[in-house]
Amino acid sequence: MIKNIKVKNSGIVKLQFFDDFPDGNLVIGESERNIPFKIKRFYFIDYLFNPKANRGFHAHKKTEQIIFCINGSFELNLDDGHDKQKIVMTDPHIGIRLGPKLWHTMKKFSRDCVILVVANDFYKKSDYIRDYQEFLRYIKTK
After folding, report:
1. What predicted TM-score, i.e. pTM, was given to this entire model?
2. Is the pLDDT of residue 50 over 90?
């Protein structure tokens, strides 16, 4: 269980969770309620069969996202330019806010891992910072 977030521009998002054993679980997220913004885009990542896969390696200038591990597990690494934090994602109703100016990477995916990301804006190539040194320069000037 994730207890706290120490990096800036991040946080914990809890979705509504209903254990309906033996008929499965129900997890509900609502835009502008427990998701703190209007959702304009979502995507998911699955079939992560390469045990050495690494993803992410970027930050956003303005876009805010929330990342969920809806099946399996993975390691999420956050870096605000000052503090770093590693979070093992396993709980499908707990998401992590990836705010602007937050470098993030993902690795150590279980074979059954499925990641869901919701975002407050449409894809814009210009919003991405894909070089870590550029990221460090950017956060010092903004």
Report:
1. 0.92
2. no
